[in-house]
């Protein structure tokens, strides 16, 4: 008899333990990003000069990255659907498409940051840029974490094993998408 | 998970997920083009109003919060409420330009656009 993790087999209050853990992680992440975004908004509301600093971000780059993340969310939810139908190989393939989306997002971000730093806009250039690099950097770290977890999940999913993990990692990825949905107007549109 | 899985599968097939993605992309287009009009109110509606709609759609249709146990929604809602308390408690002080035993040394540059 093989032993299986509690997160796979246990079900508390109608929610499998693994998924329950993901929701609790997201609850803490809500406070983390909520505090960061709330701080930005309250600082900016009465200090209009921030708009002049924000004018240096490229709206089209941010919009393209938003499109990339929305598309990767689509492939993540389609992977979940494939997992529900017990089609592990398809779920794994779609998860790897999602990883590719995360890779494109990070690549665009790297080019964008390189350009901005060369222009002289560093994390010490002002309050806006401090927030910009902190918020976008923290978000990018979550994207990297999601990509690593998704790759590990795709390995087992390809063998039609532990398919419930596809949904769990998908929920996390959608949250990362939601955070970016709010970061985009704050960093790129409100000028 | 079975009940939720069946509910999820019956309500959203691959086509509807793609349709939802299409709506999200269209909303993204509006949120980019809207602020180009240069009207502050329109910018607020198209950028931040649409961000809320997009986030709602992702939570409802992709994260399946609409068919998740209610208390999961309550947990997330409680965390958001904490953020409102944090904002309401701190913002009145942060928005001030002077106070007791401290002074703001940073000089704000002159505004270039009266609309902002």
How many H/I helices of chain A? 7
Beta-strand percentage range of chain A = under 5%
Radius of gyration of chain B: 21 Å
Instruction: Give the strand order, joined by hyphens, for the main sheet of chain A.
Output: 1-2
Overall domain count of chain B: 2
CATH class of chain A: Mainly Alpha
pLDDT average of chain B, as an integer? 79
Determine Rg of chain A (CA atoms, Å): 19 Å
Query: What coarse outline of chain A follows from CA principal-axis ratios?
Result: elongated
Total E-strand runs of chain A = 2
Distance between the termini of chain A: 61 Å
Give the SSE string of chain A: HEEHHHHHH
Q: Describe the biggest sheet of chain B?
A: 2 strands, antiparallel
State the major sheet of chain A. 2 strands, antiparallel
Instruction: Bin the strand percentage of chain B.
Output: under 5%
- Identify the most extensive interface between protein chains: A-B, 56 and 52 residues
Domain module tally of chain A: 1
> Under CATH, the topology of chain A is which?
Four Helix Bundle (Hemerythrin (Met), subunit A)
Would you list the SSEs of chain B in sequence order as H and E?
HHHHEE
What is the arithmetic mean of pLDDT of chain A? 90
Strand order of the largest sheet of chain B: 1-2
Describe the structure.
The complex is a heterodimer of chains A (191) and B (116). Chain A is mostly helical and 191 residues long. Chain A has seven helices and two strands; from the N terminus they run αββαααααα. Chain A has one domain: Cytochrome c oxidase, subunit III, four-helix bundle (Four Helix Bundle (Hemerythrin (Met), subunit A), Up-down Bundle), CATH 1.20.120. Chain A is 80% helix and 2% strand. In chain A, a hairpin with a 2-residue loop joins strand 1 and strand 2. Chain A is elongated. The model of chain A has no long low-confidence stretch (mean pLDDT 90). Chain B folds into two domains: 62 residues; 29 residues. Chain B is 67% helix and 3% strand. In chain B, helix 2 runs antiparallel to helix 3. At the A-B interface, strand 2, helix 2, helix 4 and helix 7 of A face helix 1, helix 2, helix 3 and helix 4 of B.
């Amino acid at each position: 008899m093989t032993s299986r993790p509690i997160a796979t087999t246990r079900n508390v209050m109608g929610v499998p333990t693994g998924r329950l853990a993901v929701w609790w992680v997201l609850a803490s992440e809500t406070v983390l990003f909520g505090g960061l975004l709330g701080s930005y908004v309250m600082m900016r509301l009465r200090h209009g000069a921030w708009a002049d600093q924000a004018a240096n971000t490229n709206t089209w780059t941010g919009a393209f990255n938003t499109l990339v993340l929305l598309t990767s969310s689509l492939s993540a939810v389609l992977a979940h659907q494939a997992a529900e139908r017990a089609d592990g190989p398809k779920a794994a393939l779609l998860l790897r498409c999602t990883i590719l989306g995360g890779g494109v997002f990070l690549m665009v971000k790297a080019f964008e940051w390189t350009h901005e730093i060369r222009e002289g806009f560093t994390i010490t250039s002002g309050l806006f840029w401090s927030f910009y690099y902190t918020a976008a950097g923290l978000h990018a770290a979550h994207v990297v974490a999601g990509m690593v977890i998704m790759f590990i999940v795709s390995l087992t999913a390809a063998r039609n094993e532990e398919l419930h993990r596809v949904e769990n990692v998908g929920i996390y990825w959608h949250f990362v998408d939601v955070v970016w949905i709010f970061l985009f107007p704050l960093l790129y549109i409100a000028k | 998970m079975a009940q939720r899985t069946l509910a999820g599968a019956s309500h959203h097939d691959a086509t509807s997920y793609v349709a939802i993605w299409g709506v999200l992309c269209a909303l993204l287009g509006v949120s980019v083009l809207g602020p180009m009009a240069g009207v502050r109110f329109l910018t607020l509606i198209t950028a931040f109003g649409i961000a809320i709609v997009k986030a709602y759609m992702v939570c409802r249709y992709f994260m399946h919060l609409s068919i998740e146990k209610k208390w999961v929604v309550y947990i997330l809602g409680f965390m958001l409420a904490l953020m409102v308390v944090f904002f309401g408690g701190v913002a009145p002080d942060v928005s001030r330009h002077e106070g007791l035993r401290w002074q703001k040394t940073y000089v704000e540059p002159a505004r270039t656009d009266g609309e902002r």
